[in-house]
Specification:
Helix content: 25-40%
Order of helices and strands: EEEHEHEEEHEHHEHEHEHEHH
Bound molecules: flavin mononucleotide
Shape: globular
Radius of gyration: 20 Å
Number of strands: 12
Structural class: alpha/beta
Distance between the termini: 36 Å
Length: 371
């Protein structure tokens, strides 16, 4: 019996297996609104058999977008465009749909990766002045962000709530708050980006204040049956940066505030990061959060093989595995994993006839015949 294909619960949300599609920016929106690309991209991933699909980092304000082509959920037009995508996905797939809500802070106003991902200076076409905890740029030579004042923090808390409420109206099954990869909430957590001298900077307690306020505001606004959780970078991979001890402390506080899970990733706040890459390289961080905090954890990062994913779950290192690149490379990854591990997976009835002879029970409920 495969543990990867065992059902589990993310707060009040039940999931048929422990495979999650990680959020992945597509840089293909127009004025924050989803396009036909999102219909195709999310539509085909929704047929994968994964338990949950987390929609890409979705900005809570226009200036919170990483790139001008980022998805947003700050206007009625954005909401209508995503509603169209969700309607199609829902019509053809039972997959649980979550959304990652985000503000990029000083890493906003960037070009997409295929245009080198560099900063668009505010005086260049399409660029804008970025906001951050402190007037510290992400990299030397980049435009200096504008530090947020208290009114700015209030506006952003409200923006996170407004976006979360739009997500609830759209019928999303869960909300992930992006507290990782060097974006705004991570910038508050990390002493490498946060040089504030008010109640939002200095001590670890102060640096955690704004991310916790955002979490509290979103959790309070969203109906209890919709789980809310956070993605956290467990380490900056830079001496003197945010670290696993801070991550455990933050996760403990989030737990007492009704956080459903922690999606454990690393890095992103500093170009000086020295990441030790390898298969499952971030899993030990998820394991530590799970063991010390007791919240469900999602492990991510170079999880590519079914047996590897199975052993992460079977050994209790995490409650779910989250896959990004492997799912783009092979959108039927969960089917192949189920076949390898002797499990069953949901597939659209239109594709049932593709079930290989040697895997007679692979697709749940599959039956086919003809005259
Ligand atoms: C194309 C692409 C877009 C990504 N966009 C996001 C994003 O929107 N939000 C996020 O938290 N991480 C994002 N990531 C990071 C992934 O979610 C994941 O953490 C990372 O790729 C490591 O997992 P992997 O080894 O399975 O790819 C992105 C990664 C890729 C490859």
């Amino acid at each position: 019996m495969s543990r990867l294909f065992e059902p589990w619960s993310l707060g009040t949300l039940s999931l048929p297996n422990r495979i999650v599609i990680a959020p992945m920016c597509q840089y293909s929106a127009e004025e924050g609104s989803a396009t036909d690309w999102h219909l195709v991209h999310l539509g085909h991933l929704a047929l994968s058999g994964a338990g949950m699909l987390i929609v890409e980092a979705t900005a809570v304000t226009p200036e919170g977008r990483i790139s001008p082509q980022d998805l947003g959920l700050y206007s009625d037009a954005n909401e209508a465009a995503l509603a169209r995508v969700l309607k199609v996905v829902r019509a053809h797939s039972p997959i649980r749909m979550a959304i990652q809500i985000s503000h990029a802070g000083r890493k906003a106003s960037s070009r997409p990766p295929w245009e080198h991902g560099t900063q668009i200076h505010p005086h260049e076409p399409g660029g804008w002045k970025t906001l951050a905890p402190s007037a510290v740029p992400h990299s030397d030579g980049e435009d200096v962000p504008e530090p947020l004042d208290l009114a700015g923090l209030q506006r952003l808390r409200e923006a996170f709530v407004a976006t979360a409420l739009r997500a609830v109206r759209l019928g999303f099954d869960g909300i992930e708050i992006h507290g990782a990869h060097g974006y705004l909430l991570h910038q508050f957590l990390s002493p490498l980006a946060n040089e504030r001298v008010d109640a939002y900077g200095g001590s670890r307690e102060n640096r955690m204040r704004f991310p916790l306020e955002v979490f509290d505001a979103v959790r309070a606004a969203v109906p209890a049956q919709v789980p809310v959780w956070m993605r956290i970078s467990a380490t900056d991979w830079v001496p003197g940066g945010w670290d696993i001890e801070g991550t455990v402390a933050l996760s403990q506080l989030l737990k007492t505030r009704g956080c459903a899970a922690i999606h454990v990733t690393t890095g992103g706040v500093s170009p000086a990061q020295a990441i030790k890459l390898g298969p499952g390289y971030q899993v030990p961080y998820a394991q530590r959060v799970k063991a010390e905090v007791g919240l469900p954890t999602l492990a991510v990062g170079l999880i590519t093989e079914p047996e590897q994913a199975e052993s992460i779950i079977a050994n209790g290192e995490a409650d779910a595995v989250s896959l990004a690149r492997a799912m783009l490379y092979d959108p039927r990854w969960p089917w192949h994993a189920a076949a390898k591990l002797g499990a069953h997976v949901s597939a659209p009835k239109q594709y049932w006839r593709s079930q290989p002879r040697q895997y007679k029970d692979l697709f749940e409920g599959a039956r086919f015949g003809q005259r």
